[in-house]
From TrEMBL:
Gene3D superfamilies for this protein: 1.10.287.2250, Cysteine proteinases
Domain Cathepsin propeptide inhibitor: 23-65, 177-237
Key word Disulfide bond present: yes
Key words of the record: Disulfide bond, Hydrolase, Protease, Thiol protease, Zymogen
Family: Belongs to the peptidase C1 family.
Domain Peptidase C1A papain C-terminal, first and last residues per copy: 264-475
InterPro entries xrefs: Papain-like_cys_pep_sf (IPR038765), Pept_asp_AS (IPR025661), Pept_cys_AS (IPR000169), Pept_his_AS (IPR025660), Peptidase_C1A (IPR013128), Peptidase_C1A_C (IPR000668), Peptidase_C1A_papain-like (IPR039417), Prot_inhib_I29 (IPR013201)
Protein name per Swiss-Prot or TrEMBL: Cathepsin L
Record-level GO BP terms: proteolysis
MF term (GO), any: cysteine-type peptidase activity
Keyword flag Protease: yes
Length: 530
């Protein structure tokens, strides 16, 4: 182990397996993260030597073998103690290091906790399968970690002795990591956290490579790429999405009944018709519902009134709480629509996005659209197709658990729920690629995600990912209605001016005139209320 970071000539390939953690028992330090990564590459080469040697041992050609492991394994190797250690201790006590109990975590965080505190045995701190108050007893600690070294592996939620078979290209991984941080403005609180995130990033790179190999072989219909979520575990990404689950849908809305006798075209793309505005970015706020809602409203405003005006998600976040929405903690598009029905909505320019909830500052004098009706769409893909074709973009909810690394192609994952909806998006069209039908869906994670901010989702596949489960649309008050309001306003102004004209004339005729003016002023107040 003392020389594992020194070059042993003759073995330059990446090993198939290597230990996840390295205890720096020999005082190893490096001048920079770059040098450390270079040493890691050398270390991998030497692990290849270990692997080849152990293959000879298994074949009876050698009399000894090599092995490595984490915590329990290291305790057995270093101290001869075969003691089961407490996962419950880690679940209850390592939250301050970034772990989330039963909702997932990162092993590096657990190791750093043990480095700082220690860990009890399984017997002293038994497993209970739920997070409880921390009861760690430092006087009964079994092991203390001297150092932690991060290597690439798939994520495990366990403390055990293991080796992991993966393919690693340390140099290119480091380059991709550096570019990833620049592209997405990623910063971390400490080198320790960055090392942990780099480990997750490498795991996601392996996922991308393996999936894309299947895509190239024609076994998958979509491909993956590095996105802003590439430093998150699948569990963390689901937690990010599940922010919207606090709001439960009210399904007692009227159903929009499209004219099914009209033949819908084979493909529709409202982007090409000017009814879809630029892709926006919700950031780390769970406000997808507001972006889905504004997208639908913007589409209707463009189609019905010819106005391409970006509407304010912040307006909805700040002001629709009384309608059941929860700002960055989730909401529903229909709740947002009912708020706009009752109040209106400002433009993005007048009420810009801030990514957090603030006091409501809606200005009714600057409202852009008036909603006439709020409707749900039947849970039927043909009905959704007809509504999109005849009316425009539709707000939809989906199970986006597999969206994190989506790069392009028709998204058709192995598993995707039609009922566990966790993300609000906008269906802006549909089409067919080869023999595969798809929906064109606008997301709110910026133009760098997916296909310029969009995803093509499998269509006519038993409501895959729940795209019709929470579909909804609005109708706007027509131009005719608006013209009627303007005409009434003109009549109102004329009558008001007439009242003041008569009042002025009467006011010139003494007391009788003043009394007459008072009577007409009462009429003016009545008109004003009207």
């Amino acid at each position: 182990w003392k020389v594992l970071d020194k070059v042993i000539h003759g073995f330059s390939n990446t090993p198939k397996g290597f230990p996840f953690c390295l205890k720096v028992d020999h005082g190893k330090t490096y001048r920079s993260l770059r040098e450390e990564q270079a040493r890691f590459s050398v270390f991998q080469s030497n692990l290849r030597t270990i692997e080849q040697h152990n293959a000879k041992y298994e074949a009876g050609e050698e009399t000894y073998y090599l092995k490595a492991g984490c915590l329990e394994g290291q305790n057995a190797l270093k101290h001869g103690q075969r003691i089961s250690l407490s996962e419950q201790n880690l679940m209850d006590c390592s939250g301050g290091y970034g772990n989330n109990g039963c909702k997932g975590g990162v092993m590096d965080y657990a190791f750093f906790y043990v480095k700082d505190h220690g860990i009890n045995s399984e017997a002293a701190y038994p497993y209970e399968e739920e997070v409880k108050n921390c009861r760690f007893d430092s006087s009964r600690s079994i092991v203390r970690v001297d150092g932690v070294y991060d290597f690439n592996m798939k994520v495990f939620v366990a403390v055990a002795l293991f080796l992991v078979a993966v393919q690693v290209q340390a140099g290119s991984d480091q380059e991709l990591w550096t570019q990833f941080k620049v592209d997405h403005g990623k910063t971390y609180r400490s080198l320790r956290e960055e090392q942990a995130r780099f480990s997750v990033f490498q795991s996601n790179l392996r996922t991308i490579e393996q999936h894309n190999a299947k895509y190239e072989a024609g076994e998958e219909t979509y491909y993956l790429k590095v996105t802003q979520f590439a430093d998150m575990t699948p569990e963390e990404f689901k937690e990010f999405l599940s922010l919207g689950e606090k709001t439960k849908p009210d399904l007692n809305h009227p159903v929009y009944e499209p004219d099914m006798t009209v033949a819908a075209p084979n493909s529709v793309d409202w982007r090409q018709k000017g009814a879809v505005l630029e892709v926006k970015n919700q950031g780390q706020c769970g406000s997808c519902w507001s972006f889905s809602a504004t997208g639908c409203l913007e589409g209707q405003n463009a189609i019905k009134h010819g106005q391409k005006i970006s509407l304010s998600e912040q307006n909805l976040m700040d002001c629709s709480g009384g309608y059941g929405n929860n700002g960055c903690d989730g909401g529903l598009m229909t709740n947002a629509f009912f708020y706009v029905h009752d109040h209106g909505i400002n433009s993005e320019a007048a009420y810009p996005y801030e990514g957090k909830v603030k006091n409501c500052r809606f200005d009714s004098s600057k409202s852009i659209v008036q909603v006439d009706g709020v409707y749900k769409v039947n849970e039927d893909e043909e009905a959704l197709k007809q509504v999109i074709a005849l009316e425009g973009p539709v707000s939809v909810g989906v199970d986006a658990s597999g969206f994190s690394l989506y790069g392009g192609g028709v998204f058709n994952p192995r598993s995707c729920s039609s009922s566990s909806i966790n993300h609000g998006v906008l269906a802006v069209g549909y089409g067919t690629e080869g023999n595969t039908d798809y929906w064109i869906v606008k997301n709110s994670w910026g133009p760098g995600w997916g296909e310029s901010g969009y995803i093509k989702m499998i269509r006519n596949h038993n409501n895959r990912c729940g795209i019709v489960t929470l579909a909804s649309i609005v109708t706007l008050k027509s131009d005719e209605f608006r013209d009627q309001l303007i005409q009434k306003l003109i009549e109102y102004v004329k009558k008001t001016l007439e009242i003041f004209r008569v009042g002025k004339e009467l006011g010139e005729n003494g007391t009788e005139g003043r009394n007459g003016f008072a009577e007409n002023f009462d009429n003016f107040e009545h008109l004003e209320n009207t």
